[in-house]
């Protein structure tokens, strides 16, 4: 009989490693990335942001694939280039631009300011080094942890339908697609979730990746607390379930809920209503009789955005859990990866034997400024706020520049608002050089796409790639789209959707044939993988890394003061002596700018909920600031003073007993005319009782 070890070795086909690291960055004063609303500036923390890394390697040779899903709006070219630079200096040629996929979950409640292209500076207050640094370092650290924890393991795939969690937010655009095509699908959104389960050779659980198409915009643009939105809440529930007894963000099991073709998909399932009159505004213009489009906002299933986030997040989590537990189809086969850089402003696409079309220099259409039912456009910085600063005046003058006739003709019927491809000061406004990339793990092909494909665009892309694999003898591939990878290029609609120029079409920056170009390019990558010829793919033109000095409008961190007779961390408003579950404990402290803590330490925990243990006669931490039940608010006062309010929303099932809240911060202290130092401090509420319900 065969040696029993051989059977196990046969069973464990890959080396697998998982890792998770904090990438939150500054939670105050930095504009949040996603709604392009300059007034939506960070003012505290609801949940931490994490980078989650998964490495699959072939035990026999050096082939590897890395997939990272980070709780950020999108991966920028700047982030990717800096991550790859660090990986190269640590690991040489092991982790490269072809076998490392970096994907953003697309939360709209994370700090911005990590972009090198000028357009994204406008609503992010420039390039914010601490935000960029936290993201880059968090991603690299998550890969380091995965790399150090590689063990023999097995992968299983499963798929299923998620209900009651999405609507199409541009249904009138979707209806422009051919009826014969629409008839093949039961819904105007992709309801399918794909789950990849990872276990070690002894069957111990390591982690999972879920791909599902939904916008993480359950938290709307009135929110100022940094958080990972609905998909982040799903990750939190799964990890809390598997890492029993650990504080949030700790424990070895890693659950990533990654983005997919979510371009026209909203989690705000009750649909669009006029904020002023309450009537439906589900019309082609998403407009209200009084107040126009600015009044039209979609509602989630909950009573407020916090509850909606939890409802959608829990739906997604429960489906993933079910698919994970039942996953039995094993993923086997070789590892490969294919990557090219492409100048997307100049791709020739052969539509058929007689007809060739081209992509365009990037440009944004008028509806870009209108925004969507998930967040009204706020790109009104062309008047007012920035005048008087010569740098931002020059920025504005470019925005008002007239597009060339060539660009106008290329983008037809898009009425051009910003001809970003023709704006170059102080750096180009939009990328020309874009990554296209596929990583294959046996029968699973992950298409890393640089933006937001709409539902139908994603279906066309997956189908084209699948048929390409089929035609070269690689049958039965599971083709999955990973969204918001590598570089951000806004939206990709179908040619038909493009014709009606709603927000997603106005934001399809390379013109009407963008999707056709991507389909042609990804087919080429799939063919190279199927024929084992990835080494013959042309690398393409390398993207630029601009020498960006820290251009930022963030207020500088100056010396801070406590009110007369008080010191940092003193309690200003104390907890009540007694609470029951369902109530909110609220304590206000003499605070300091949380940015000071972020600049001082990469991972800083701002708060603890502690319970008194009679057995050990000591306080034990039960929650930290990564918990979704706590909220950390910072409010700036005058003359260098500020307050911090910590809330604990006591969940059902909380053990009765004696508790307290603690706050940890840093303040800037003036030590001489030109020098400040950073001083750590802490504060604590008095003890309070939680009584049985």
UniProtKB/TrEMBL annotation:
Show the GO MF annotations: metal ion binding; N-acylsphingosine amidohydrolase activity
Catalytic residues (UniProt)? 266
List residues traversing the bilayer: none
Q: Which Gene Ontology cellular-component terms appear in the entry? A: cytoplasm; extracellular region; plasma membrane
Pfam families for the chain: Ceramidase_alk (PF04734), Ceramidse_alk_C (PF17048)
Keyword list, A-Z: Hydrolase, Lipid metabolism, Metal-binding, Sphingolipid metabolism, Zinc
| Protein known as | Neutral ceramidase
Gene name, Swiss-Prot/TrEMBL: Asah2
């Amino acid at each position: 009989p065969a040696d029993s070890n051989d059977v196990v070795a046969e069973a464990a086909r890959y080396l697998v490693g998982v890792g998770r690291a904090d990438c939150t960055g500054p939670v105050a004063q930095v504009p949040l990335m996603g709604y392009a609303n300059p007034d939506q500036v960070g003012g505290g923390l609801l949940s931490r942001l994490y980078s989650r890394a998964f490495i699959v390697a072939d035990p026999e040779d050096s082939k590897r694939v890395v997939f990272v899903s980070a709780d950020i709006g999108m991966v920028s070219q700047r982030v990717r280039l800096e991550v790859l630079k660090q990986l190269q200096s640590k690991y040489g040629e092991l982790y490269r631009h072809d076998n490392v996929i970096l994907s953003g979950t697309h939360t709209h409640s994370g700090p911005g300011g990590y972009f090198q292209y000028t357009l994204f500076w406008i609503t992010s207050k420039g390039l914010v080094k601490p935000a960029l640094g936290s993201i880059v370092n968090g991603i690299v650290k998550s890969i380091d942890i995965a790399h150090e924890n590689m063990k023999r393991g097995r992968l299983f795939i499963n798929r299923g339908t998620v209900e009651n969690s999405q609507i199409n937010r541009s249904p009138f655009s979707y209806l422009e697609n051919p009826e014969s095509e629409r008839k093949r699908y039961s819904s105007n959104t992709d309801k399918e979730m794909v789950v990849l389960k990872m276990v070690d050779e002894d069957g111990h659980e390591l982690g999972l990746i879920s791909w599902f198409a939904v916008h993480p915009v359950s938290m709307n643009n009135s929110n100022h607390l940094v958080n990972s939105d609905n998909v982040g809440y799903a990750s939190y529930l799964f990890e809390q379930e598997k890492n029993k007894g650990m504080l949030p963000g700790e424990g070895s099991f890693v659950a990533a809920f990654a983005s997919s073709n979510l371009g026209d998909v909203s989690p705000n399932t009750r649909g669009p209503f006029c904020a002023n009159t309450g009537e439906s505004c589900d019309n082609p213009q998403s407009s209200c009789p009084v107040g126009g489009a600015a009044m039209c906002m979609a509602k989630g299933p909950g009573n407020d955005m916090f509850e909606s986030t939890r409802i959608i997040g829990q739906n997604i989590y429960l489906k993933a859990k079910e698919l994970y537990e039942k996953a039995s189809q094993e993923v086997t086969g070789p590892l490969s990866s294919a990557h090219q850089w492409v100048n997307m402003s100049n791709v020739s696409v052969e539509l058929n034997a007689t007809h060739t079309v081209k992509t365009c220099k990037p440009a944004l259409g008028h509806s870009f400024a209108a925004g969507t039912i998930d967040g009204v456009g706020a790109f009104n910085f062309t008047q007012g706020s920035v005048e008087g600063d010569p740098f931002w005046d020059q920025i504005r003058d470019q925005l008002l520049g007239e597009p060339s006739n060539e660009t106008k003709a290329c983008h037809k019927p898009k009425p051009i608002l910003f001809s970003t491809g023709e704006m170059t000061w102080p750096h180009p406004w939009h990328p020309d050089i874009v990554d296209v990339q596929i990583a294959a793990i046996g029968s699973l092909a992950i298409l890393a796409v640089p933006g937001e494909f709409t539902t139908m665009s994603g279906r066309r892309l997956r189908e084209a790639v699948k048929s390409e694999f089929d035609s070269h003898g690689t049958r039965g591939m599971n083709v999955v789209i990973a969204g918001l990878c590598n570089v951000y290029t806004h939206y990709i609609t179908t040619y038909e959707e493009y014709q009606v120029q709603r927000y997603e079409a106005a934001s399809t920056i390379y013109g009407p044939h963008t999707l056709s170009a991507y389909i042609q390019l990804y087919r080429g990558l799939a063919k190279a993988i199927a024929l084992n010829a990835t080494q013959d793919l042309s690398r393409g033109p390398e993207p630029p890394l601009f020498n960006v000095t820290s251009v930022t409008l963030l207020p500088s961190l100056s010396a801070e003061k406590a009110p007369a007779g008080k010191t940092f961390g003193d309690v200003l408003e104390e907890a009540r002596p007694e609470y029951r579950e369902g109530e909110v404990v609220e304590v206000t402290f003499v605070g300091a700018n949380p940015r000071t803590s972020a600049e001082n330490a990469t991972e800083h925990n701002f708060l603890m909920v502690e319970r008194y243990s009679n057995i050990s006669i000591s306080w034990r931490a039960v929650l930290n600031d990564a918990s979704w039940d706590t909220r950390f608010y910072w409010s700036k006062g005058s003359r260098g003073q500020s307050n911090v309010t910590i809330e604990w929303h006591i969940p059902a099932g909380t053990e009765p007993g004696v508790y307290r809240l603690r706050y940890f911060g840093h303040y800037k202290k003036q030590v001489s005319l030109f020098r400040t130092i950073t001083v750590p401090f802490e504060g604590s509420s008095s003890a309070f009782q939680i009584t049985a319900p």
